[in-house]
Amino acid sequence: MISVSEALDQLFALAAPLPVETVPLVQAAGRVLARPVTARRDQPPFPASAMDGYAVAESAPGQRLTVIGESAAGTRFEGSVGPGQAVRIFTGAPVPEGATRIVIQEDVTRDGESITLHDDLDENPYIRPAGTDFRIGQTVEAPRLLTPQDVALLAAMNIAEVPVTRKPRVALISTGDELVMPGDTPGPDQIIASNTFGLHALLRDLGAEPRILPIARDTSESLIHGFSLVGDADLVVTIGGASVGDHDLVARVAGELGMERAFHKVAMRPGKPLMSGRLQGAMMVGLPGNPVSAMVCGHVFLAPVIRAMLGLGTAPAPRLTARLSAPLTQNGPREHYMRAQLDGDGIRALDRQDSSLLSVLGKANALLVRPVGDAARQIGDTVDYLPL
């Protein structure tokens, strides 16, 4: 067996960043910016009013000025403002030439085409200089996962198309005679294929493009057929059949099909029977069949692999720390990812840690990480965890 960190190193060696494609800006949120992009205009492109009021060249308490025109957003005042004059102006409108400040409308009394400035004038000039936000050539660096805020910035920079990393295409294959799809009627010895759907949701949220292939039965012929359907997948994920029992055929069949195996078995719980390699040009990861094991391996291994394929670097899933709100006994010889609940009192491992219990995983909002041979821990000790 190898350690979790060694397994990740070998996975990263197989997970090359994917090609770049260009998408319309409206489709860019949640994608990974693959190359830096630069602003094509200044923002604002002209000195702009920050408030509704009057643009003036001079101001003094009690001063009376003549209104000579109006400047609105999208329609500037053509001309300049001089001594004794004012231009009615609205938020976002271009500031007329000659104006040194905006007197807000609350500080003005208007009578026809004349205004009188109040005695207690707000001294803020309320003018946004050209390029206050950004200027032509300012760069949004890559790689970065584009947020809605980023998309708004790119739009303001007049960038209509965005270079992004292509989404990783992932083929998911559940294996086992005992499985049926949700909605089907299971036989007396069968269960529902849950792992595939949980992993599909996880991978989709990570920015991948997963697809679920038909369940592969416990025969070489069925597995070979399943592998024949992976098509243009960048990553093939099998669930189940990665152990060493008489019905665990994935490693043997994949080997017969030419898989270059990187490793098999990791010193972790849940999730010991894990393997990876390369099969017919695609990266392959074989996950254990126990539902919790598969999902934990998804968070620990698949999430960093997808990030690597997206060009976001090669790093383990980020860990946070919290204080224990319940004690823990000594850990054994495998790194343990315990389903846990994190709240205002700290973090505590849930009582039942059997790798088949999805109901316990459903209650968890964290995976409490126990290092190999970790000593018994007491309330108040600091521990690492992965958020769920």
The whole-number mean of residue pLDDT values reads 94
Computed Rg: 31 Å
Helical amount among residues, as a percent range?
Answer: 10-25%
Q: Which strand-content bin applies to the residues?
A: 25-35%
Shape: elongated
Low-confidence stretches: none
Total strand segments: 28
The assembly state of the depicted protein chains is single chain
End-to-end Cα distance? 26 Å
Q: How many helices? A: 7
Instruction: Tell me about the largest β-sheet.
Output: 6 strands, mixed
Strand order of the largest sheet: 8-5-7-6-10-9
Structural class: alpha+beta
Helix and strand arrangement:
Blueprint: H1 4-14, E1 20-24, E2 32-33, E3 37-38, E4 48-49, E5 53-56, E6 64-71, E7 85-89, E8 101-104, E9 108-111, E10 114-117, E11 127-128, E12 139-140, E13 144-145, H2 148-156, E14 161-165, E15 169-174, E16 179-180, E17 191-192, H3 195-205, E18 209-212, H4 220-228, E19 235-239, H5 250-256, E20 260-264, E21 268-269, E22 275-279, E23 282-287, H6 291-309, E24 320-323, E25 335-343, E26 346-349, H7 358-363, E27 366-370, E28 382-387
Parallel strand pairs: 6-7, 15-18, 15-19, 16-17, 19-23, 21-25
Antiparallel strand pairs: 1-14, 2-13, 3-12, 4-11, 5-7, 5-8, 6-10, 9-10, 20-22, 22-23, 24-28, 25-26, 25-27, 27-28
Helix pairs in contact: 1-6, 3-6
In short:
With 388 residues, the protein is of the alpha+beta class.
Can you give a write-up of this model?
Helices cover 19% and strands 30% of the residues. It has seven helices and 28 strands. The strands form eight sheets. It has a six-stranded mixed sheet, with no helix packed on it. A six-stranded mixed sheet has the order 18-15-19-23-22-20, with helices on both faces. The longest helix has 19 residues, at 291-309. The mean pLDDT is 94.
